[in-house]
Every structure is written in structure tokens, then in C-alpha cells.
Amino acid sequence: MYSVDLNSDLGESFGVYRLGNDEQILDIVTSANIACGFHAGDPSTMKKTVRMALDKGTAIGAHPGLPDRCGFGRREMAITPQEAFDMVIYQIGALAAFVKAEGGRMQHVKPHGALYNMAAVGRALSEAIAEAVYRIDPELILFGLAGSELIKAGEKLGLRTASEVFADRTYQQDGTLTPRSREDAFIHDPEQAAAQVIRMVKEGKVRSRQGTDVPLTAQTICIHGDGPRALQLSRRIRQLLISAGISIQPPGEG
């Protein structure tokens, strides 16, 4: 029996600005990565998103990013491992307070955007992030790109990890995601996206843009909730996964 988690990055509105389809996406995914105020989100949005996730029975995770609102945390910054450690501690702590106040429990941590991509290939940075997660709660699950330095760093510390793959993104032959700046970075067709994730879950492979098969482990699938067809894509992927005999559940229950 195959099983996989579906996760989405949520709580990324700020003040009067609204982003994404959080309430509807929470009916589809099993894990919510909630922004912690650096790249997006604010205290009221954090509380509201935590409450919605708890009401819908969706597992909650912190989604720490770089302090770059204008760039939405997607621009690289020259930070030290110590700075990364401090940023992650700060942001997890902020969200954890809301989760506790609302009577819930945090399941995981998934870095956002450029911090995620930098940690995927940078050993020192990934080790600092994993250490921050471990120091706060060694029972937390660390989400990271399948095959990345972040997954290796978490495993080295003894953390539970969840190897993440992407439904709507294309891959390079080294296992990294195609940069967002390229036109071929995204998959817009739900059938194509579902076929990609089904193969990743069942066969442990993804076809790169260079035409080679890249081996990987798929334990959690990221579905972006802020695109123009995000809800349609998300619903169809979930439907096709279940039709393919793949159960949907949080990694903490697997």
C-alpha cells in the first residue's frame, strides 16, 4: 500500500493583502506549512490559519523564510549558518506559541523559498537549520527536498524527515528544481502533474528536463495554493492519487 502526504504553503497574507486559497486548500492537503512573519504572514494571519488548520484536522508546520517581504523570501541572501539558526528558532517559536494557544501541536518544519533551496545544496546551512529544529523539539519532522543536504542533516541528528517532491515543478538532472525564472519551471496541466507524482511515489523516479530519470523518495508532495488554477490542480491531483491506490495522510501517521 502506497501512502503520501500532501502539503501546501499557507498563511502568506499580510495585513489587508490577501494571498492564496487557504480555507479551500485545507480541505485538500494533510499538512499545512504556515508562514511565520518573515517572508510573509503576520500575527493575525498566523492565528487565523492555525485555527482553520486545527478545525479541519490538518497537521501544522512552521514555514520559516528569509526576512525579505518584497522578494517574498525567494531571493538569496548571504547569511551565515548562525544567522540561519537564529532566524529559524525565532520563527518556529512564534508559530509554536499560536499553536499552543489554540490547543494544538506542531508536526513539522519546512523552510521557505530561497532558504529552502540554499539549504538543499549547502551543508553548513542545512546543518544549522536541522540543529535549530532539533533544539526546539526533536520530535518535529523536518521537510526538505528529496535527496537534499537538508534531509541528510536531519537524519544525521536523528530527526524524523519527510522527503518532499513537487507536483507542479520540473526537475533538473541533479535533482534540484528548475529555477522559477525559466519558462519550463512549472507544470500547469493537472494530468501531467499527477502522472509525475504518481511515478515519483510508486517508482521513486522523476524525469528531468534533460531527459534523464532522477531517483528520489517521495514522502510528501507540495501543492502550491496561490496560482490561478491552484484549486483545480490540487483537487485533481488528490483524486488521481487516490484512484492510483495511493492513500493520503500526514507523515506523522505513516
TrEMBL record:
Gene Ontology molecular function: 5-oxoprolinase (ATP-hydrolyzing) activity; ATP binding
Record's keyword annotation contains ATP-binding: yes
Record Pfam families: LamB_YcsF (PF03746)
A GO BP annotation: carbohydrate metabolic process
Keywords (A to Z) from UniProt: ATP-binding, Hydrolase, Nucleotide-binding
Stated family: Belongs to the LamB/PxpA family.
Subunit organization: Forms a complex composed of PxpA, PxpB and PxpC.
Protein purpose: Catalyzes the cleavage of 5-oxoproline to form L-glutamate coupled to the hydrolysis of ATP to ADP and inorganic phosphate.
Protein known as: 5-oxoprolinase subunit A
Organism: Paenactinomyces guangxiensis
